[in-house]
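Bench notes, bay 3.
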Amino acid sequence: KNMEASNPQSSDYPVTHDTTVTLKCKDTFTSSGGSETVTCTDGTFSNPSFTCSKNCSIPSDWVTKNMEASNPPSSDYPVTHGTTVTLKCKDTFTSSGGIETVTCTDGTFSNPSFTCLYWWPFTKANKVEIS
């Protein structure tokens, strides 16, 4: 379940009947929903009412697809479960259109519905003559 005891520490076990234990998500996971405490009753802990979902790192295929995160910026990764990220094409590439946002769901980003196409900037300085 990607959880661990934060109070009392795991070195303090076993615990006595009616002891309340605070749980936390392990590193790289985010807590969502419910209480983070469980109680020991007759040698068995109650079930936690929260879940721990994996955070997302930048997928390597964004690099090969010439995409990068614009909001939040690439320096803010990993991002927490549930975060929506806006993507953009790298310089000299343009979007084919489509949805440019993806959402982190338990360690995996949804797939973007656009591609980044190489764009040749036709300006007066680099005009191409076709004969």
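Next record in the batch:
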Amino acid sequence: CVCVWGGCGEGIPVLLFAMGTRHGVAEACHYLGKRKSTSMACLLLLLDCLFTSAIVARVPYTKIDWDAYMSQVTGFLGGERNYANLRGDTGPLVYPAGFLYIYTAIAYVTGGDVFAGQVFFVLLYILNLGIVLLIYTRIDVVPWWALCLLCLSKRVHSIFVLRLFNDCIAMLLVHVALAFFQNNKWNVGMIFFSFAVSVKMNILLYAPALLLLMLKGMTFKGVAMALSTAALVQILLGLPFLMSYPVEYITRAFNLGRVFIHFWSVNFKFVPGEVFVSKEFAMILLVMHLSLLLIFAQYKWCRHEGGILSALGLHALPNGDKTSHTQDIIPSTESLRSCHSRLRTLTAEHVTSLLFTGNFIGILCARSLHYQFYCWYFYSLPFLLWKTSFPVPIRAKARN
């Protein structure tokens, strides 16, 4: 047998016995890599907590949306339930009700004070980073030393603790949902996913890939139940507004056709303004988005199953041979007992890959990206880069 010694984060040696096989050595190295990743994650959390606190103490706050958020909260607390009348100094309220409730709670805790709000967002940043590191340490894609890339963005620190954007809260909630999805906890994950959508609708960029995952991992009845749970969350959150001014709430909080100002766009700045706001340009981007999703679903996400149609009908077949070459699926006991069962356990890496890639495709095809939208996809970049065959220096440079 082969003895493989490795140091744990606490310095305690670990002895693993691999029975003279290459697979055994690989398992030992994988185990040691996991321990290093966990230790590295804890160290990064501690260091980034100190670094982020120093930013708040030394770097001036940038006034952008905080006052507008507090104005909208004040209107809500004053009894206003008509979304057409809830406004701030940057314009009308365009986020669903979950945003109002969360920032009402923040206003209550901080008293509307900017510095207190920054302290709150430091805690929010560290909590989000901890969840992201949990997501990464569950999958063997990014090496332990590369986890530091998740902490090296000046802009993301600024978005969280110097500008206090609601994007930060939405991303925290969707990362919590992703952590549950990695464990195939679809219903609980959908509750957090729906809460994230209620803060900001960019979270819907994850929806196509998430729907495919649920169709692969659940029965059709289970998918319907999960979607109904998410819809119920939206109804309950919006109930005060739906009972008073339903049209105003739906058309303003869930306005999928809203056109951003060309001046603030950073991704299509080179496109002339009249083209940027045209319906034809929007249609081209929509077609490109749907086409890329279909291509990835057919040739990447479901390639082991033989395509998207085969993937969705995999457990309807009485012969379970197709699961033998499906690296992304762990067949469940129930699926082997019944040809009518569609229950499958999807690997954490497969779930993460689909969600991160699906969101990034949406980012690529978005008509307008603002500076704060960087946090929508920043935390997925190390994973996506390490899924490529690029040399390591290029991966690290591309992340920056």
